[in-house]
């Protein structure tokens, strides 16, 4: 039988892993009471903690003195566009256009659903963006919406419009496999809150869009989801299928989630418009938990106004989500933005910034608003990544302890299996201190947004990807232009950050979209949406489509 006695040499070896140093006397003193600590940890591991069990502690993005905005109500545009003859033109239409055609009777929800189902059948074998297609139920839902339309009843701007939902969200009696081999046969018995809200809003569920295994990257048990602009590369992740399907015109809109870049990163790669709402605004009930204090739910669309219409349908507190926060949402299409102050970090537009980045900043200056330089305190923002690693490792501890992590396809150094193991070697004391650092970062961003109404910058602007995800501030990412790039590799969290992959400069280049991010104050998504609308019009690149056959 293996000798499990703890020795001073064991403690000394552990010190190197933990980045601390004790004296020989201190090591000797520890030996006497480590056994109890280890035994307690082993006892706790015997308790079954399924993914649905939340943390007792809850993250709240609001600092003392925060005042919740009081404005509410959403007013969309009223387009007069005639119904196109070509199915493809209909498929790529905006949500206000689709809604107007359905409301007028020019377009039925069934026909629109059939258009999208036909596109899925033709293009999903290239893109691997739908894990499950729910054709029969989608057509039944579409017929039900058409019946209501015939009676003069509308459930709102999304009435009769088909969408895809990220395969992290439960759908009753339909496989929800989380993109991961251990769960690919998982069939839930109820719908996630996001699904019930969208059903109530009249949206038609086409199926489950692919997710990088356990909400990371674009590799799942069915393959690798592809970027419609360059099918030789992945679509980035983890809302891989949602961005790919929306960019390729396989749905009217889609739902994604973000813990650290999972809405904004695939939107950067696929040229979609992704809105990551304020933490707590949208219920996560019935969705896979990756990090309880970080996960957020938001829309992925082809235009800025579209994201506002979807957010309005899914906004609202939910007792089933312990981190849910009741907050109003206000948005008016085309609202004047004169008088707003937009900040930018000058280093974000220095070395490494692209021509598209500089053009987007120049376009912002042309909007008639004040654009000013800002700065953030010098803090180790990247250190917060260890909190993400720990929460994710806890959410899927059983995979590590049972060796089921070996069944996941992606096994690189930066992939989940290795990251989960590594996370167990940082002390609980360090994690408490990380939470205190997180509070300083909350204060830092609060100070920034006291100076400006919003911040603009490239996807990887300084510390903003990490910082704003940990503080819960909202972010809108929209297409800003195009670049000729080589095929890009997989994302990686291994170095303490997420990247969208390095392009292969030696290979064939492809014309691919590039985006720009706009960050805003807590629960003030309407402001960044109106800035985004104006910028979208100014840049004039949102309507271009990928060439697929």
From TrEMBL:
Instruction: Return any one Pfam family short name.
Output: Amidase
Q: Which Gene3D superfamilies match?
A: Amidase signature (AS) domain
Q: Which domain of life is it from?
A: Bacteria
UniProt-recorded name of the protein: Amidase
Residue limits of the Amidase domain? 112-465
Naturally occurring in which organism (per UniProt): Pseudodonghicola flavimaris
Q: What InterPro entries does the annotation carry?
A: Amidase, Amidase_dom, AS_sf
């Amino acid at each position: 039988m293996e000798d499990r006695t703890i020795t001073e040499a064991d403690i000394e070896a552990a010190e190197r892993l933990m980045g601390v140093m004790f004296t020989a006397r201190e090591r000797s003193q520890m030996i006497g009471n480590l056994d109890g600590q280890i035994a307690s940890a082993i006892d706790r591991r015997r308790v079954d903690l399924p993914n649905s069990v939340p943390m007792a502690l809850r993250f709240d993005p609001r600092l003392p003195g925060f005042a919740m905005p009081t404005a509410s109500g959403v007013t969309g545009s009223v387009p007069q566009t005639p119904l196109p003859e070509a199915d493809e033109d209909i498929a790529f239409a905006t949500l206000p256009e689709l809604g107007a055609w359905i409301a007028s009777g020019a377009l039925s929800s069934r026909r629109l659903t059939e258009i999208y189902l036909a596109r899925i059948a033709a293009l999903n074998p290239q893109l691997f963006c739908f894990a499950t297609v729910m054709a029969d139920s989608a057509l039944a839902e579409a017929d039900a919406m058409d019946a209501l339309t015939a009676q003069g009843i509308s459930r709102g701007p999304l009435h009769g419009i088909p969408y895809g939902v990220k395969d992290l969200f439960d759908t009753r009696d339909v496989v929800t496999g989380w993109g991961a081999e251990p769960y690919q046969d998982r069939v839930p018995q109820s719908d996630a809150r996001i699904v019930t809200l969208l059903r109530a809003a009249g949206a038609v569920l086409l199926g489950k869009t692919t997710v990088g295994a356990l909400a990371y990257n674009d590799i799942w048990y069915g393959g690798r989801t592809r970027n419609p602009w360059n099918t030789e590369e992945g679509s980035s992740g983890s809302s891989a299928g949602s961005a790919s399907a929306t960019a390729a015109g396989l749905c009217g809109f889609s739902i994604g989630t973000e813990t650290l870049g999972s809405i904004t990163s695939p939107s950067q790669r696929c040229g979609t418009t992704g809105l990551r709402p304020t933490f707590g605004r949208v219920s996560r009930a019935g969705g896979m938990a990756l990090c309880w204090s970080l996960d957020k739910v938001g829309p992925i669309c082809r235009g800025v106004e579209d994201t506002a219409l979807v957010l309005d349908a899914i906004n609202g507190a939910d007792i089933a989500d312990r981190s849910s926060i009741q907050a109003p949402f206000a948005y008016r299409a085309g609202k004047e933005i004169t008088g707003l102050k937009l900040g930018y970090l000058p280093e974000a537009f220095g070395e490494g910034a692209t021509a598209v980045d500089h053009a987007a900043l120049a376009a912002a200056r042309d909007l008639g608003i004040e654009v000013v330089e800002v700065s953030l305190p010098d803090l180790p923002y990247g250190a917060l990544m260890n909190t993400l690693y720990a929460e994710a490792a806890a959410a899927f501890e059983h995979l590590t302890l049972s060796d089921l992590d070996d069944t996941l396809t992606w096994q690189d150094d930066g992939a989940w299996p290795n990251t989960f193991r590594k996370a167990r070697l940082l002390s609980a004391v360090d994690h408490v201190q990380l939470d205190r650092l997180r509070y300083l970062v909350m204060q830092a961003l609060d100070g920034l947004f006291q100076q400006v109404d919003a911040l603009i910058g490239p996807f990887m602007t300084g510390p903003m990807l990490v910082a704003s995800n940990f503080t819960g501030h909202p972010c809108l990412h929209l297409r800003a232009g195009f670049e000729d790039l080589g095929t890009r590799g997989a994302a990686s969290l291994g170095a303490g950050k997420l990247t969208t992959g390095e392009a292969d400069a030696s290979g064939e280049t492809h014309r691919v979209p590039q985006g720009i991010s706009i960050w805003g104050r807590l629960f003030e998504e309407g402001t960044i949406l109106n800035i985004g609308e104006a910028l979208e019009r100014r840049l004039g690149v949102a309507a271009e489509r990928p060439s697929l056959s």
